[in-house]
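User: New here, any thoughts?
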Amino acid sequence: MLTDLALLTFVKFPEPGKVKTRLAAAIGPELAAELYHHFIDTTFVCAAQLQNAAQFAAFTPAEKAPAFQRLFPGERQWLAQVPAPDLGTRMRTAVQTMLQRGFGRVLIIGSDSPDLPAAHLNEAAEALRTHDLVLGPAEDGGYYLIGLKADHAALFEGIAWSSTSVLQQTLAAAQRLGLHIHLLPRWYDVDDLPALQRYCLTNDLPPTLVTRLKPILAGKLMDDRTLLA
C-alpha cells in the first residue's frame, strides 16, 4: 500500500426524481439531476487535489456500477454502499471497509458541496494524524466531511440524519467517547435556491446549465449583478 489515507466520496446515481429533491421542487427533476451530475464531476475534481490519498467513490444503487464508471471515468475505485436506509450505517460500514483494507486514516465527503475548497481536505488529512476525529461543519447543522482512524459506532448511532442537529449530536457522542476533535471551517451544501444562487455567483457551470438555470434564478432570486447575466 502506497498510502495510509483513503478518501471516499459518497454519490448517488443522478437519476431524475431520486436526487436533489428539494431543488427539484423548484427547478424540476430533470434539471436537478443534470445539476447533480455536474456536482459529482466537480466534487471528483476537488477530491483529486488531495495528494497521497487513495480515491474511492462510494455509490448507490449498486446495480448502477457500470453506468457510474461510464459517466464518471477517472482514477478512482468504486465501492458500492451497503444497502441500508440509514446514512450512518452506510458511512460506518465504509469506514470499517477502509480500515480492514489497511488504511490508517479515512475521510468521507458528500457530493452536495461541489465548490468545497481543496484546502479543507488537506487540513483534514493533516489534522487526522494527531486527532481522533475530524469534522467539517455544514451551515445547515450537519457536516460535509468526517475523518476517522478507528471504528467508533456511537458516532453513527442515534443521530437524527438530515436534521439541523447532526453535528451537535455527533460532537456530543465524540465527547462521551473522549475523542480528540478537530473542526474544519464551515461550508455550505447546495440544497435550495438561495444556496444554488450562491454557488452560481462564484463558480462556472456548463453553458447548457447556465442557459436553463438563468430564467429560473433570475425570476426568483437574482439581480443584474449575477455572474449568470
